[in-house]
Amino acid sequence: MKFRSTRSNECVSPSYALLHGLAQDGGLYVPETFPENVLQYNKLAGKSYQEIAAIVLSYFFTNFTDEERKNMIASAYNSETFRDDRIVPLHSIDADVSVAELFHGRTLAFKDLALSLFPYLLTAAKKQEQEKRDILILTATSGDTGKAALEGFKDVEGTNIMVFYPSEGVSPMQKQQMQKQEGENVNVSAIYGNFDDAQSFLKRVFTNEEVNAYANDKGVLFSSANSINIGRLFPQVAYYVSTYVSLVDNGAIAEGEVFDVVVPTGNFGNILAGYFAKKMGVPIGKLICASNRNNVLTDFFATGVYNMNREFYTTDSPSMDILLSSNFERFLFYVAGEDAEKVAQWEKDLLETGRMAVSPQELASLSKEFEGGWIDDDETEAVINHVYNDFGYLLDPHTAVAYGVFMNRHKQGLDAGRHTVIMSTAHPYKFPPVICKALALQQQDDPFDMLLEIGSVTGMALPKPLADLRNKPVRFSQSIEKEQMKQAVLSFVDEISKKK
């Protein structure tokens, strides 16, 4: 398998794509030939999550042997990294709705599912490419990616990681997770700006010749842990495949029966992984893109126009506070019939005008597989309250957005009577102020005090990763202007160089 750019004919090996993250022309890497309709239930039944992941990834990371992939997967998914041996357990809300719990990893977010494996993929790729430079992982986060990446790459030899997050755009618990991060090779900084500011800056860094030349002289190579990197994206396909197998095994659906998926969506990586799972043979009907008030994607799926020229909102579901969804470019590549020239023009339009549009024919085609919906913060809190009081199940605000979009579709008769899976992206305890507000509990200054209050009402135990966090010291409390990000990166490059 080789990987090509979404914007040109540039074609590289999997190890090169893993190491560099972004194509030289600024595009994203996609499989040169996508492995369509290669997965069947009868070849997946009875297999563990690890075995399913090995099958899925064998189609993409062909540069590694079966044994190498299995060893990396075994190191990533075990009792030390995940609190549930099923890795992605299903919770049944009722006969027609299941919740895929993607938050049982070390940082209590779905990003753990890829970022537990990615360091092993990257280290092995570095060896294959005979790369002698130190790797500097540059990551922008809207809340969960940062902590998961920091934890995955903490003290990994030959790698360093630097994370930028919006100072007022993450939950108090997400902020504590990043500010108290351990490890000798990590660096974290808040910025006075939003996630789009951080992500756009980092994408420019990867294609900036001057900055890359400076890093190269210091023996440093930039890479990414955002889902623009294939090492982040393709491991996510595995949990859609395992979810399908679990649905059949649990009797929720029959073998080959079509089911819908609702995904709380920000940077479009999670739902894109579902789209790829469908292309590989998983019988997903509609992929429903659930958004908060930053509903640029909802509008796109309704009109075919992606328009970023709108107000940016800070919401109860901060990981979805994004107007420029990076992985959307990969989706557009397939909407365009794999026409890289058309994708390059669309991306140029977005960069120059903040707007791009597909044709009516292209919109009609993609609407067969994708739909969008959104709810606001008041509705999100009402959904959390409703699901807890009616079903005794506590949702985080992102999952509540997805469930709220499902409920609206159900009321309108748009679910076609199919079983629906809600992809639950984070543990509710990562968002104590929102949960307290939704359950009409008193909000407090200390997020840990709020968690104790929530626990006393719900009986839900405080997960160990958060319990351990309370008494750790703050290491990274700085906030910088977004214009200072370049200098912050160069300064960290200097630090890495001095350690050699």
Tell me what you see in this structure:
The protein has 500 residues and is of the alpha/beta class. It has 21 helices and 16 strands. The chain has helices at residues 14-20, 49-58, 66-76, 112-115, 118-128, 144-153, 172-179, 195-206, 209-217, 230-249, 269-280, 296-303, 328-335, 340-353, 360-366, 377-391, 397-411, 432-438, 447-458, 464-467, 485-499; strands spanning 3-5, 11-12, 29-31, 90-94, 97-101, 134-140, 159-166, 186-192, 220-224, 259-264, 284-291, 305-307, 355-357, 370-374, 420-424, 479-481. It has a 6-stranded mixed beta sheet with strand order 4-5-15-10-11-14. Helix 16 packs across helix 18. The model has no long low-confidence stretch (mean pLDDT 95).
Helix content: 40-55%
Order the strands across the largest sheet as they lie in space.
Answer: 4-5-15-10-11-14
Q: Based on CA inertia axes, which overall geometry fits?
A: globular
- Estimate what percentage of residues fall within beta strands: 15-25%
Our measurement of the CA-to-CA distance between the termini, rounded to an integer number of angstroms, reads 35 Å
Count all strands and give the number.
Answer: 16
| SS-derived structural category | alpha/beta
Rg estimate, integer Å: 21 Å
Biggest sheet details: 6 strands, mixed
**Uncertain spans, ≥5 residues at pLDDT below 50?**
none
Helical segment count: 21
Mean pLDDT value: 95
